[in-house]
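Sample intake sheet
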Amino acid sequence: MRESRRPATLAEALQSWLKQSGMSKRLQQAGIVEQWAELVGPQIASVTSPEAVTPDGVLRVRVATAAWASELSLMTPRILARLNAGRTGRVKEIRWVPVGPSPK
C-alpha cells in the first residue's frame, strides 16, 4: 500500500528552498548586520556602523576613529565568536574602516 504524505506547509517549503539555494546562509549573515548592537554591546555599537557581509563572509564595519578601529582589531577574535555563535552563515573576517579623523 502506498504511504501518503501530508503536503508541506508554506513555511516548510520556503525553509527547504532557502537551505537548498544557499540563501539561508546569506540571511543569517545579513542578520548579523541587523542584530549588531545586541551582539557587540552598547559601547562598541555607539562607535561603529556595520555595512554589509559579502557572500564569502567579510563584514565591513565603519568605525568612528582610527583609534577605535585599532582597538577593535585587537578584539576581533572575541567579536567573531559572538557574531558566529549558533549560525551557519558565518563571518570569517571583519574589516574595520575608520571614518573619523586620524590621530596626528
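Comment: The radius of gyration is 19 Å. The longest strand covers residues 48-53.
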